TrEMBL record:
<keyword id="KW-0175">Coiled coil</keyword>
<feature type="domain" description="PG1 pseudoGTPase">
    <location>
        <begin position="472"/>
        <end position="644"/>
    </location>
</feature>
<dbReference type="InterPro" id="IPR002713">
    <property type="entry name" value="FF_domain"/>
</dbReference>
<dbReference type="InterPro" id="IPR027417">
    <property type="entry name" value="P-loop_NTPase"/>
</dbReference>
<dbReference type="InterPro" id="IPR039006">
    <property type="entry name" value="RhoGAP_pG2"/>
</dbReference>
<dbReference type="GO" id="GO:0008361">
    <property type="term" value="P:regulation of cell size"/>
</dbReference>
<dbReference type="InterPro" id="IPR045786">
    <property type="entry name" value="RhoGAP_pG1_pG2"/>
</dbReference>
<dbReference type="InterPro" id="IPR032835">
    <property type="entry name" value="RhoGAP-FF1"/>
</dbReference>
<keyword id="KW-0966">Cell projection</keyword>
<dbReference type="InterPro" id="IPR039007">
    <property type="entry name" value="pG1"/>
</dbReference>
<keyword id="KW-0963">Cytoplasm</keyword>
<feature type="coiled-coil region">
    <location>
        <begin position="293"/>
        <end position="320"/>
    </location>
</feature>
<feature type="domain" description="PG2 pseudoGTPase">
    <location>
        <begin position="666"/>
        <end position="688"/>
    </location>
</feature>
<dbReference type="GO" id="GO:0042995">
    <property type="term" value="C:cell projection"/>
</dbReference>
<dbReference type="GO" id="GO:0005525">
    <property type="term" value="F:GTP binding"/>
</dbReference>
<feature type="domain" description="FF">
    <location>
        <begin position="248"/>
        <end position="302"/>
    </location>
</feature>
<dbReference type="InterPro" id="IPR001806">
    <property type="entry name" value="Small_GTPase"/>
</dbReference>
Amino acid sequence: AATKLASAEKLMYFCTDQLGLEQDFEQKQMPDGKLPVDGFLLCVDVSRGMNRNFDEQLKFVSNLYNQLAKTKKPVVVVLTKCDEGVERYIRDAHAFALGKKNLQVVETSARSNVNVDLAFGTLVQLVDRSRGKAKIIPYFEALKQQSQQIAAAKDKYEWLVGRIVKSHNEAWPNVCRKMQPAPEFQDYVYLEGTQKARKLFLQHVQRLKQEHVERRRKAYLALLPQALDALVPDLDEIDHLSRAKAEKLLEAKPDFLKWFVVLEETPWDATSHVDSADSERIPLDLLETPAAEQLYEAHLEKLRNERRRAEMRRAFRENLESSPFVTPGKPWEEARSFIMNEDFYLWLEEPVYMDIYGKHQKQLIDRAKEDFQELLLEYSELFYELELDAKPSKEKMGVIQEVLGEEQRFKALQKLQAERDALILKHIHFVYHPTKETCPSCAACVDARVEQLLGSRFVRPAERHARNPLPDANADRINLVILGKDGLARELANEIRALCTSDDKYVVEGKMYELSLRPIEGNVRLPVNAFQTPTFQPHGCLCLYNSKESLSYVVESIEKSRECAAGRRDNHAAHLPLTLALRGDAGGETLQSLVQQGQQVASKLQCVFLEPAPASAGYGRGISERQIGQVLKALLDSKRNLNLLGCTAGLRDASAPAPVPDADLRIVMCLMCGDPVSADEVLLPILQ
């Protein structure tokens, strides 16, 4: 109860971290070793102590208070350890204070840091009356406020730790220095202390490490099925092995170290392998975990299921081959009920069976078509009575089908009647045009094979000097303009394309030519209807008409085209070879009148006029396939002559021509003098 104390070189303490570590903190001594006492905190332990009687303690406190009261200094009663306080003790302590004049009581807990500042603040206010009076808050209310404040500070501090600490390898000293200026760190340390702040940091680092290890584990487990597929894809190899023997088998594989790594220390997640640069490979001890064992069992089950599905696919194919209900062209919906059973549905989905069935059907259809083609060759006499270039009538087709109808090879294509009829028509075309292009054997045709063999064994003569070549650009190409209004041009173009091969090639005199058609039905002065484009150089024009109006359109279009060519000084377009043809179903006097008008126009335009094909030939529209061939042959002849003229013109117009052989000079003179020389006579010396 003394009011004046003296203790030389007494250190001042300002935080609990100093205890035992005085040298690490600022050392500050009390002034002159003397200290006046301005007030007293009278502490009363209200917890249940061992071998301690609270009544006796309270009696001691009462005597002590009497001594303190004599000093005339302020006194505050502080109830300590209220976090473990006994309600009766607290009540008796308050009753003791009520019996004294102006004796204030503050309920505290140093462990929870509740009302400790309030106790000192209350005493300071009693010493210095100029300060505002502190409001005394009961322990449990203060504890609630303190908990809320700590929780808010903890949330902010954890946010700060999460923002700064991104790696589980961070150390506390470095992180502590980084967080020192942050108010979130300062507030939490003030409320809870450095040790709790460090504890939260360690918890965060441990959580980061667990997340890192879990990511690694998931990556390894995701890679394990691929490793098993690569190392042990054969079910027979591992089907009856124990897990230990299977592990030994894996280690014996040549590519084992490509997928796995054997660690000296285990388990892998407790070693430095977690952060190793070689952590992409799977640690072998991972195979001993339950998750890896499940994946191994799943791998076994997958191999067993794949084998079973393969067996089902094989059984299904065998069922298709042996079933009499599966015929060429039969839809899956009709065949399904005859060939499917419960086992098939159990192991494979229906789209798989449909795919297998589709491939089997293709094989059946191809085989049936080959057999039917052989049948047609065996009955060749059925096709001798047809006229050249004629299409069979319905009656003739009926006779053919009636004769072949009893044959099983004919019945096999019963559900593919359209394709069967197409094969008959194709066979008729082959009978009257037996070339390698129309041969049913396609690439296996003997003519084609002989041509390939000859081409591979014989070398062609060397080309002539580049100064005087025969132009061979577009030598195997025919560009034909088809002119006609009201759909005439497009209709004929479609018919001609139907006679071509799949890659738009046409046979003329036994040779294959690439045929390019340009149907025009509008104003030829417009670019979209021009005879010539940057990518299309016409070799000739086939003009069609079926009335006076359409004939007038042809005349006007030709005149406009020639005017445009003259304006461009395009001599080739101005003298483009023309053929005029009547196309229609007219008869009697009308047909005769249109023919006469067409002949007059052809004479005026100086072009060829095609007589309409007889109706008995099966071409009611007026132009036969043979006439189309004649038109194309005439274009080829004209094209050859134009090429030779261009060649000789190049010799004639050269400003300083090189010496020309005698044969070339003779060709030049013949063409310039207009001697009646055929193309063959001109070409023969050059070819020789």
